Each structure stands twice: as C-alpha cells, then as structure tokens.
Amino acid sequence: MDVDAFVASRSPQWVRLGQLSRRARRPRRMTGPEIDELVQLYQRAATDLSTVRSATPDPALIGRLSRLVADARSSVTGPHGGAWVNAQHFVTVRFPGQLHRLWRWWVSVGVVFIAVSLAMGFWIATHRHVQDSLAPPDAVKALVGHDFKSYYSDHPAHDFAFHVWVNNAWVAALSLVSGVFLGIPTVYLMLQNAANAGVDGGYMAAAGHTGEFFGLLLPHGTLELTALFISAGVGLKLGWTVVDPGPRRRTDALAEEGRAAGAVAIGLVGVLAISGILEGFVTPSPLPTWARLAIGIGVWCAFMAYIVVLGGRAVRAGETGDVSLDLRAQTAPVAA
C-alpha cells in the first residue's frame, strides 16, 4: 500500500471527523445530518486504523489514528456516565482485573510469608532456650495469659476497628510504594511482619494455646493478610518493572504500572476497612470460635471468588488496571 497516497486521500475525512468530535462535546449545537456524518466518518476511520495497522508499521500514523478513533468513539457513544458509573467500573472491572493479572506475585508473597511464620513459630515452640533468649519470662507469661487476647477487646470496637484499619492501610501503602526501590524495603517489611507473627504464634503454641492463637487470628487475618500480600506483590512488580521494563521505555513502563498500582492501593482501602470491621467486631465477640472462623473465612472466600470471577473476566477482556486511554498522557513514538 502507498502510505502517502492513502494518507493524502483520507486526511480530509480525518480532519472533518476531528472537527465533528469536538463539536459533539456540545451535542445541542449539532444538527441531525452532522450526527449522521460523525457516525459514518467514525466507522470509516476505524476501518482505516485497521488497514494501517496491518499494512504499515508507521507508529506516528497509528498513534494519530488511534487518538482520533478514541475521541470519535467517545463522541458517538456519549460522555462518561458520571462518578457512579466510574466507581462501578472500578469495583467490577479495574480493581479485580489488576488483582487477577498480578496473582502470581502476591500469591508468591503469601506462600513465603506463611512459610517463614510457620518455621519461626515451630522453631520457637520447640526450643526452650530460644524462648528464653528472645523475651523475659514475665513478658512471655503476660503475652500468653492476657495480652494477646486482650489486645482485641481492651478498646471500644469501633475505635479499635478504625485504628487497625488506618494502621494496616499505612503498612500496605508503604510496602506497595516502596517497591519502586527494587522491592528491597517491601521484602524487609514482609519478613519483619512474618517473623513477628511467628514469634507470637511460637510462644502461644509452647504454652498450649495454639487453638486460641488461630481462633483469634484467622477470623480477620485471612482477609487482612491477603490484602498485605497483594500490596507487597504489587510493590515487587513495580520494583521488577524498574529492572526489566520489557519492550516499553522504562519511564513509560513505570508510569503504566504505577497507575495500575494506584488502583490497587485505592481498592485495598476498602478491603482493609472490611478486615478492620472483622477485627473490631467479630474477633473479640462472644461468638463460639467456629462461628467466628466461619464468618472470617466466608468473607475471605467471597473475596477470592471476586478476584477469580470478575478479575478473570476483566483480564480476558483486555483490562490492564491502567486508566482509560483518554486520561493517559499522549506520548510521541520513538525509535526502539
């Protein structure tokens, strides 16, 4: 195909389409024939874009037509549906799609975290000299006899729920954002939290309170820890993008992954709010252990189904977690 001849013959239509797209931002100013012309030119431009993509590798021309078709599509299909529609799209498509797309990263974090915690707990529970070297006997006695359980019930439920929500959101944000430093701070934070969980569990197990430990941890901890695993996994993906941006320029790749990570950070605020409610109201409640576990694990299973079903559907539809095309900065093509 003669690209120059093709562009010369189609340019007047593309210019006219751009004019009509801008006029369509105020539909009352458009006449019926102009609307029909807009739809017809949009269809032709979409066909031209498909032709150009298959016939020429010219990135400048493809970028120009892509933006033109995207603007025209927005004009033809109408404006965005407002805050409610955007929020609905975020909850049902963008957030779960990003979680599903990066599941290997955060599942790997979870596996390592649990392995470190269990190994640390087993080591402490089975070695008396390790127990004695880590904390004085009075502190251990207070932990297993009162402090671990009372931590969840010493304060009013609503105050405690808000406190743990803010604290967990801060830890999640820190592990996610710090991932850009090659993931090193993220790994440190996760290992530190895994070791702390293992120490508490080891002392509780050594005192014969293993059931109490898991009975108080799991009702909220399944969802809470999963949210922290996700934040760490996304942070590590950011760090890896710095190392290996793939075919994209490093700045472009980091910008795309950063915007997608921002979507995860916003979504995790809601997830951690739910885990905070569980920790403040369900964990210290007088319900039997099996009921508290059923509630916590049931909420966690619902969250996993949300990722698998809605997230899988979004990924198959091409969702990347990034903002929509019309909200991204326009970039000029460059040579590889």
How would you explain this protein's 3D organization?
By secondary structure, the protein is mainly alpha-helical. It is 79% helix and 0% strand. The protein contains 12 helices and no strands. The longest helix is centred in the C-terminal third of the chain and has 34 residues, at 210-243.
Provide keyphrases for this structure.
336 residues, mainly alpha, 0% strand
Helix count equals 12
DSSP strand content: under 5%
Which structural category do the helix and sheet elements fall into?
A: mainly alpha
Helix content, binned percent: over 70%
Molecular shape: elongated
Low-confidence stretches: 325-336
> Biggest β-sheet: count, sense, barrel?
none
Distance between the termini: 24 Å
Let me know the number of strands. Answer: 0
> H/E series, N to C?
HHHHHHHHHHHH
- Rg computed from alpha carbons, rounded to a whole number of angstroms: 27 Å
Mean pLDDT over the residues: 87
What's this, in brief?
The protein has 336 residues and is mainly alpha-helical.
Topology:
Layout: H1 3-23, H2 32-55, H3 59-77, H4 82-101, H5 103-125, H6 128-134, H7 137-150, H8 157-177, H9 184-206, H10 210-243, H11 250-282, H12 289-316
Helix pairs in contact: 1-2, 1-3, 2-3, 4-11, 4-12, 5-9, 5-10, 8-9, 8-10, 8-11, 9-10, 10-11, 10-12
